Amino acid sequence: MTITGAVADAIRARAFELRAMGGARGFGSVRLRASVDGVAFDSSVFPHKESGGYLLPVKAEVRRKAGVAEGDLVEVAVWV
User: Fold this and answer.
1) Is the pTM of this model over 0.85?
2) CATH fold of 2-79
3) Secondary structure (H, E, C), the chain
4) Statement: residue 54 has pLDDT above 90
């Protein structure tokens, strides 16, 4: 799933803070907590050059628990 806009800006700011404190992660990833349709999980997001945002991988187990499939509209929350 692609994250853009104000949420991506907040993630980018957090990534900048981590780099400044020497806590940068590989590939520019940022650890966070997210939820998809109320199913919470820990993950990392990765920079996505095409959109200028971030990619949030959602594991099959999370999709199954949330009862969602590719193409479904879902409610997503992230905590950076």
Assistant:
1) yes
2) Elongation Factor Tu (Ef-tu); domain 3 (2.40.30)
3) CEECHHHHHHHHHHHHHHHHCCCCCHHHCEEEEEEECCEEEEEEEEEECCCCEEECCCCHHHHHHHCCCCCCCCCEEEEC
4) yes
